[in-house]
């Protein structure tokens, strides 16, 4: 009898619990080079070193899958790229918006500059600014990107290259906005120097807008290094820096072990997700968490969009502690899915993807586990949900890339699944009515 019950349970799990499918995988990233001669010349000169190209962020727009490749080390061929969604397992990356826009000048020593903290050499800063003046579409190094409801791609460009080697600030931190229908740059906004601190690090960008009013858009830029959020007002073409205690990391949650590598991080506010608008004005909840933390917080977007209120101490109590995910649940990215009312998030300490239904209390018991795999989900770095309810997860074993060495074989993957299917059997499936 016990055996029959066990078999029935196993069949139930097999039938209803659907894991993520491996859609794409790479041993090394390759690119759609102008020619084989150009590729070989780049290899010979060290401008392309295969093992230094690590995918980190992804975004989906229509039939395009965008992939970012930050310039952690020298030899990154292109930082902003895409490929057409298809059945090819290891597609080559196409630089966006062009090859030229993703190329650093030949002489690295003549154009580096320092912005935001530390010493700024005026002549070198001018040369770096000239890099953008020559081609304002230039993308130096980007981590995460976001496409909005108005068919625009928002790119947070750190302007920083060779981060793990000899860091070079080629250009100031800036936001580049592209029209995805024409692949043309709409605007480049440089974050003012007084909003960039010595330890600032912008590795994410969230866009708050509606297709009914594309000019009324706001970008939220979590500053994980100096614990703040820079808010960019698109209509007025200005930004301001917002501070709050909830943007800081938890000193008890900075110890991480991924892929057998132990390390300690102090990353503050990082993941952010936008709830669904509740009225015609686009009012909604902004969910957020620090990377070195297991707690989740929220704040109304009306707070962040009001510069006077957001930058004053009066806004302190507008922020809410939602709860704690539980032990070893540190997360990088999160994303809200309107179809299921579920926020999906990475679990880097567990090689997993978690979920939470926003209609339930934020407790460990209400956190679901969509998938966990110590082979395919080692450091799930970014995730997105498209308008068809497809969840995409990029895993890249980044701690091994930074602190050790990646092993031969497939290290980079994009996994996918239908949001309505992957939450079956988890606490995220049924919401409180």
From TrEMBL:
Subcellular locations according to the entry: Secreted
One term under GO cellular component: extracellular region
Alphabetical keyword list: Secreted, Signal
Entries under InterPro entries matching the protein: 6-blade_b-propeller_TolB-like (IPR011042), MRJP/yellow-related (IPR017996)
Transmembrane segments: none
Gene3D superfamilies (UniProt xref): TolB, C-terminal domain
Family statement: Belongs to the major royal jelly protein family.
Protein name as catalogued: Protein yellow
Source organism of the structure: Chironomus riparius
Lineage: Eukaryota, Metazoa, Ecdysozoa, Arthropoda, Hexapoda
């Amino acid at each position: 009898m016990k055996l029959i019950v066990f078999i029935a349970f196993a069949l139930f799990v097999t039938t209803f619990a659907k894991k993520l499918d491996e859609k794409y995988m790479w041993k090394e990233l390759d690119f759609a080079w102008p020619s084989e001669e150009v590729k070989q010349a780049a290899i010979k000169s060290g401008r392309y070193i295969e093992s230094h190209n690590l995918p980190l962020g992804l975004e989906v727009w229509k039939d395009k899958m965008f992939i970012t490749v930050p310039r952690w080390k020298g030899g990154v061929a292109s930082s902003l790229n895409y490929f057409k969604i298809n059945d090819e397992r290891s597609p080559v990356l196409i630089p966006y918006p062009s090859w030229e826009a993703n190329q650093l000048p030949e002489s690295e020593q003549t154009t580096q500059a320092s912005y935001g903290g530390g010493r700024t050499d005026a002549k070198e800063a001018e040369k770096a600014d000239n890099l953008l003046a020559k081609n304002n579409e230039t993308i130096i190094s980007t981590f995460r990107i976001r496409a909005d409801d108005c068919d625009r791609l928002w790119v947070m460009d750190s302007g920083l290259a060779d981060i793990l080697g000899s860091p070079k600030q080629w250009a100031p931190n800036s936001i580049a906005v592209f029209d995805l229908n024409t692949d043309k740059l709409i605007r480049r906004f440089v974050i003012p120097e007084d909003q960039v601190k010595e330890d600032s690090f912008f590795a994410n960008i969230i866009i708050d807008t509606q297709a009914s009013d594309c000019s009324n858009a706001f970008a939220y830029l979590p500053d994980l290094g100096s614990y703040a959020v820079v808010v960019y007002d698109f209509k007025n073409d200005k930004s301001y820096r917002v501070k709050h205690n909830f943007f800081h990391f938890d000193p008890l949650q900075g110890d991480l072990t991924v892929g057998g590598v132990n390390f300690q991080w102090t990353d503050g506010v990082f993941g952010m997700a936008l709830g669904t608008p509740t009225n015609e004005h686009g009012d909604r909840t902004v969910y957020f968490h620090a990377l070195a933390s297991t707690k989740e917080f929220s704040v109304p977007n009306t707070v962040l969009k009001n510069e006077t209120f957001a930058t004053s101490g009066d806004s302190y109590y507008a922020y809410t502690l939602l709860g704690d995910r539980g032990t070893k649940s540190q997360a990088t990215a999160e994303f809200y899915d309107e179809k299921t009312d579920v926020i999906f998030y990475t679990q880097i300490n567990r090689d997993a993807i978690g979920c939470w239904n926003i209609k339930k209390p934020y407790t460990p018991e209400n956190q679901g586990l969509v998938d966990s795999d110590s082979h395919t989900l080692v450091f799930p770095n970014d995730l997105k949900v498209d308008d068809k309810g497809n969840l995409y997860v990029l895993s890249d074993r980044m701690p091994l890339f930074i602190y050790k060495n990646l092993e031969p074989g497939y290290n980079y993957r994009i996994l996918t699944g239908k949001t309505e299917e992957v939450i079956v059997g988890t606490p995220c499936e049924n919401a409180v009515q």
